[in-house]
Amino acid sequence: MSLKLVVLYYSRHGGTRALARQVARGIESVAGCEAVLRTVPELSPQQADGEDPHLTLDELKQCDGLAMGSPVWFGNMAAPLKHFWDQTTPLWLSGDLIDKPACVFTSSSTLHGGQETTQQSMQLPLLHHGMLILGIPYSEPALHTTSSGGTPYGASHVSGHQDKLSAEENQLAQRLGQRLARIASQLKENS
């Protein structure tokens, strides 16, 4: 039985999408786990939609875990992602996401662009849904040495206006995906 873990992201310039792909690689490195890459629609018709399909509420309801990513927008998650969560009240009322593991990731153009506050803003709806929040523990050596992205709240990327991830950013994003998949597998085995 394969576990389906949704990697939900919004990306304007590609940095968050690049992180999403690395989180998905980490998920799929765990036996029996499948990453399902999804995005959300743009709010403005002038913006082009992402490369991946849009997440539906039914897919979110059926998932075994969630990784969510957003670029930093003034220290918060991006409006299209927030708009998606504002529509999840039916799942909140039915408790469909309670006790499912979740993690977050983000990207910004500068090192002090608000990554940790953005990660915390993404965690808020997950907590309201009763999800189990996972971060990156300091047992990950790259968290101690990174000079670009990576926080205990989740994976991150400092773009400096380029989408290419550093070696540490790649590693930490994959480790976050692996941790999400391992915890989801353990929870499924014990249920």
Short description:
The protein has 191 residues and is of the alpha/beta class. 40% of the residues lie in helices and 19% in strands. The protein has a single domain, classed as Rossmann fold.
Topology:
Layout lengths: L2 E7 L5 H14 L4 E7 L17 H6 L2 E7 L7 H8 L2 H6 L6 E8 L6 H14 L3 E2 L7 H5 L8 E5 L8 H23 L2
Q: Architecture, according to CATH?
A: 3-Layer(aba) Sandwich
How many strand elements? 6
Structural class: alpha/beta
Return residue spans where pLDDT drops below 50 for at least 5 consecutive residues: none
Properties at a glance:
7 helices, 191 residues, 6 strands, 6-stranded parallel beta sheet, Rossmann fold, alpha/beta
3D architecture notes:
The protein is of the alpha/beta class. It has one domain (3-189): Flavodoxin domain (Rossmann fold). Helices cover 40% and strands 19% of the residues. It is built from 7 helices and 6 strands, in the order βαβαβααβαβαβα. The protein has helices spanning 15-28, 57-62, 79-86, 89-94, 115-128, 141-145, 167-189; strands at 3-9, 33-39, 65-71, 101-108, 132-133, 154-158. Strands 1, 2, 3, 4, 5 and 6 form a 6-stranded parallel β-sheet that branches. Helix 5 links the parallel strand 4 and strand 5 (132-133). Helix 1 packs across helix 7 (167-189). The mean pLDDT is 94. Its EC number is 1.6.5.2. Its cofactor is FMN. This is NAD(P)H:quinone oxidoreductase. Belongs to the WrbA family. Residues 5-181 form the Flavodoxin-like domain.
